Amino acid sequence: MSSSPVLFSPFHVKGLSLKNRIIMAPLYTGYANPDGTVSTLLLDHYRRMAASGAALIAVENATVDPTGAGTPSTLRVDDDSFIPSLARLARTIKDEGALAFQQINHTGKFAYVAEKAVPSPVQFGETVVKEMTLDEIDFTVEAFASAARHVKEAGFDGVEIHGGTGYLLVQFLSTRTNQRADAYGGPIENRMRFPLRVVDAVMERVGQDYPVGYRFQADEGLPDGLHPEETKILATELEKRGVAYLSVMAGTYDSFFLPEWIEMERNEAYMADYAGIIKRSVPRTPVITAGRIQTPGTANRILEEGTADLIGLARVLLADPLWPKKAEGKVLEPIVACEPSCSLCMIRTAQLKPLFCTRWSKKRREELLARIGETEENQQ
Questions:
Q1: Which CATH number fits domain 11-341: 3.40.50.300, 3.20.20.70, 3.90.190.20, 3.10.310.40?
Q2: In sequence order, what DSSP letters do the residues of 204-265 get, joined into one string?
Q3: How confident is the model at residue 375, as a pLDDT?
Q4: How far is CA 226 from CA 221, 255, 361, in A?
Q5: Distance between alpha carbon 90 and the CA centroid of its chain, in Å?
Q6: Rounded CA separation 244/233 (Å)
Q7: What pLDDT is stored for residue 9 in this prediction?
Q8: Active-site residue, selected from the candidate residues 167, 210, 214, 274
């Protein structure tokens, strides 16, 4: 396969030189140790991803506070004690020739705890979770800033704030989940106050020269949810602040399992149009798009048309870690495509099981399953 002149051209992000336009978008694996530290399984996974030829590896979300973890196997970055573990991960990625970013997050209503932090009351079975107080909002802003400092001290090249997938920052943005009557609710200018405070605090803590990316929710994929008419307003504010990039996505855990969403996400590059809408609002900010970009031809077309500046691969790179080298012609075997009708990776993580891909070779499947104590018969 011949190389693409755009896909494999260099690019610059906030003072960093990327060798090509391919980014590994964050993908939760469930491989972390139960205490939130980096396991050998996680190190091996990111070593493989970094050796793929992708220019930048954005590591799956690490929680800024234990109450904001989505699962018991989520990375933690909320204390100085996690820095040595994260430093090993950063070195592992960089030793393979890729840049390393660490995503930081608070899942809000999706947290794996009983006492959840949410912008407005939410019903969970028989329990109504109370809205965050102003002191709790201040505490969470500081938690993001502190986590970003830990990421920098661990040696990562940059940090990515998770403002997507319907997590806490999005829950403040959306009228679906934010019915507050104070300065954090009501018009979009108020609803985006919390995420913008997080960005400001993070940038102040790590310094203006340290790259701070933002995982950006363009649309919630729900009729009563966020849509680009409002998210474009946030995008322009983020550009004013000089974020390193916007990694644009659509959909949340409230929409991912709807039949219409499942049908849409089987299409190649199904999120690219959202990236294009946001890109037109932030011409000076690099935009990453993702969403089952299976072929180098599609990736190159997106870049040539100016829909996005960078291509994010998550499940596609999981299915075939040689995708970039095959796309460039360095490996002549055909690309192993992510199977559109298969959602095993998402099903397993939703069941709090370590991630697994049916497209892996039999040998790799057996090795992974042996390490996590499973067999082919009980993989689902």
A1: 3.20.20.70
A2: HHH-TTS-EEEEEEEE-SSTTS--HHHHHHHHHHHHHHT-S-EEEEE--TTTTTSHHHHHHT
A3: 74
A4: 8, 12, 40
A5: 17
A6: 17
A7: 97
A8: 167
pTM of the prediction?
Answer: 0.96
Q: Average pLDDT by consecutive 10-residue portion of the chain (380 residues)?
A: 75 98 98 97 98 98 96 97 98 98 97 92 76 97 98 98 98 96 98 98 97 98 95 98 98 90 92 98 98 96 98 97 96 95 88 92 91 71
> What is the model's pLDDT at position 378?
54
Per-residue confidence (pLDDT) for residue 115, from 0 to 100: 86
Residue-level pLDDT at 2: 44
C-alpha dihedral (268, 271, 274, 279), degrees to nearest 10: -80
**293 near 337, Cβ under 8 Å?**
no
Is 167 tagged catalytic? yes
Angle at the Cα of 252 (from 43 to 174), degrees rounded to 5? 125
Distances (CA, A) of 211 to 43, 102, 198, 253: 23, 11, 15, 28
Number of Cβ atoms within 10 Å of the Cβ of 303? 21
Paired tokens of 14: 């906030």
Which residue in the block uniquely carries the two structure tokens 């009983």? 114
**8 A C-beta contact, residue 69 and residue 106:** no
* β partners of residue 13: 16
CA distances (Å), 320 to each of 18, 96, 337, in order? 21, 17, 7
